């Protein structure tokens, strides 16, 4: 199978060889870096190995989900051989070990073991760590590939891969900003060491951390060993069950071009709410009226900086202003989303879908845009400010403004829609309006968000000016306010949509 992977057209072989070369170079660099830890302190060694090893283990879990490649070790390929389920499961795991990525992983794990040996780890602990690391990654890749085969074989697409990549960025960028903001001063910062200690007791970092913890005689060594062993046994059991399931179920048909061309409809769940979400995503990502609205938000948030700096406000305080403004406008965006459908809203009304499906489905595009944007902007803002203790308060303020805006917008868009530029027209061309209903609806949503978020803003101000303990209060106040208002807003908006279907159609036909 390894030789067969190089067969086929020349372009495929060249890409595969280039990937192998990149992997070999990365492995050599990683091994050199790990061997250089022999002269580092125990804390630095533990931090580097656990963080890097956890990222590698997570990569083995995510790669089968993100990639759209067919599994060459799919148990269904061996169904005609009549093998016992346990024998086949074990054989496929052993075959999975004989691969280039696992060879690179083994080399990195061995170098980590050598680094731990320089810090006093026994040979038994080092070998145990290597074995547990390799088995964890191989089993994790097998399990994730089997789950992908069962549930995502027809739904993998560039949209789904984009969602996974976005999710990775949401995690990687804040972590990178946090790490870059720490002051090392020749030693591992306390916050980072505490995070590593927790990570060492998780399935991702336990096997990597065990030799080092055992060498230092730390109390967490036994815990890491037990977690690593339990992870291997649980993954082995899950793999055995998945092999049995794959061999006793009919394979899903291969995706056709028509199926693959459905885009977001192929990714979204096959429910009324999923259909509304897919349709909304297509409009939000393809309609220039929506695109302009989204692009204006970071510009408007950035413009708030200029007058504050001119007025003499210190830059470290100004850094905290744009992100809450962006959260406010993101929550405000869908306050008139029904009007942007124009006459296409008849599909929702004529199909008789429940109001809750319409309301939740329409919020999906804003959530997919707003959550990653805020997750990336909040840590950057706090890093520029320089006081990470305010992070909970900033999260609470943004969650309250964003979710409260979504809740009130869910009501406003069906209670008081107003005319907008029709599809295909310039987003900067606004139709003439005979009344002030549009301005009133916009203003009420904006004012309502600020009023409902006032307690959270007050506690965040206290945390900024005096008592830092108020940051935690601001966090929970913001999360509680945002979630409650969002739930209530969706419930009210759903009821109004179900009752005012004829009025909504009349509005769509009249604009």
From TrEMBL:
Keywords: Membrane, Transmembrane, Transmembrane helix. The keyword Transmembrane helix applies. The chain crosses the membrane at residues 16-38, 44-67, 88-118, 130-153, 160-180, 192-210, 222-242, 262-284, 291-310, 316-333, 363-384, 390-418, 439-461, 473-497. This is ABC-2 type transport system permease protein. It comes from Microbacterium awajiense.
């Amino acid at each position: 199978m390894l030789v067969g992977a190089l067969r086929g057209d020349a372009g495929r072989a060249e890409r595969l060889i280039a990937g192998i070369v990149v992997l070999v170079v990365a492995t050599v660099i990683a091994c050199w870096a790990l061997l250089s830890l022999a002269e580092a302190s125990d804390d630095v060694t533990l931090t580097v190995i656990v963080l890097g090893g956890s990222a590698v283990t997570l990569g083995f879990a995510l790669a089968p989900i993100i990639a759209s490649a067919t599994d060459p070790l799919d148990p269904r390929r061996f169904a005609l051989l009549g093998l016992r389920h346990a024998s086949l499961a074990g054989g496929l795991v052993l075959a999975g070990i004989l691969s280039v990525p696992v060879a690179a992983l083994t080399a990195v794990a061995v170098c980590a073991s050598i680094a731990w040996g320089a810090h006093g780890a026994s040979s038994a602990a080092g070998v145990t760590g290597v074995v547990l690391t390799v088995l964890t990654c191989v089993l994790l890749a097998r399990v994730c590939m089997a789950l992908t085969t069962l549930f995502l074989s027809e739904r993998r697409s560039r949209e789904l891969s984009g969602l996974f990549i976005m999710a990775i960025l949401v995690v990687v960028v804040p972590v990178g900003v946090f790490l870059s903001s720490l002051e090392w001063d020749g030693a591992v910062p306390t916050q980072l060491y505490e995070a590593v200690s927790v990570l060492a007791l998780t399935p991702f970092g336990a096997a990597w951390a065990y030799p080092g913890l055992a060498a230092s005689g730390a109390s967490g060594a036994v815990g890491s060993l037990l977690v690593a062993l339990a992870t291997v046994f649980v993954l082995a059991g899950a793999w055995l069950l998945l092999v049995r399931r794959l061999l006793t179920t009919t394979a899903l048909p291969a995706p056709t071009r028509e199926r693959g061309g459905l885009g977001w409809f192929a990714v979204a769940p096959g429910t009324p709410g999923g259909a509304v979400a897919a349709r909304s995503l297509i409009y939000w990502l393809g309609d220039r009226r929506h695109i302009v609205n989204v692009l204006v938000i970071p510009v408007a948030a950035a413009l708030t900086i200029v007058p504050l700096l001119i007025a003499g406000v210190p830059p470290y305080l100004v850094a905290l202003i744009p992100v809450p403004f962006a959260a406010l406008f993101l929550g405000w965006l869908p306050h008139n989303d029904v009007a942007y459908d124009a006459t296409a809203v008849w599909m929702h009304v004529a199909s008789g879908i429940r109001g809750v499906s319409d309301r939740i489905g329409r919020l999906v595009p804003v959530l997919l845009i707003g959550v990653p944007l805020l997750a990336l902007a909040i840590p950057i803002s706090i890093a520029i400010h320089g006081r990470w203790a305010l992070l909970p308060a900033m999260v609470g303020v943004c969650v309250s403004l964003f979710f409260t805006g979504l809740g009130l917008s869910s009501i406003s868009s069906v209670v008081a829609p107003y005319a907008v530029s029709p599809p295909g027209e310039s987003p900067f061309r606004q139709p003439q309006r005979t009344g002030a209903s549009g301005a009133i609806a916009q203003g009420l949503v904006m004012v309502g968000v600020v009023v409902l978020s006032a307690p959270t803003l007050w506690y965040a101000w206290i945390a900024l000016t005096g008592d830092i303990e108020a940051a935690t209060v601001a966090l929970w106040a913001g999360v509680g306010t945002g979630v409650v208002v969002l739930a209530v807003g969706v419930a009210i908006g759903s009821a109004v949509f179900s009752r005012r279907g004829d009025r909504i159609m009349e509005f769509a036909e009249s604009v």
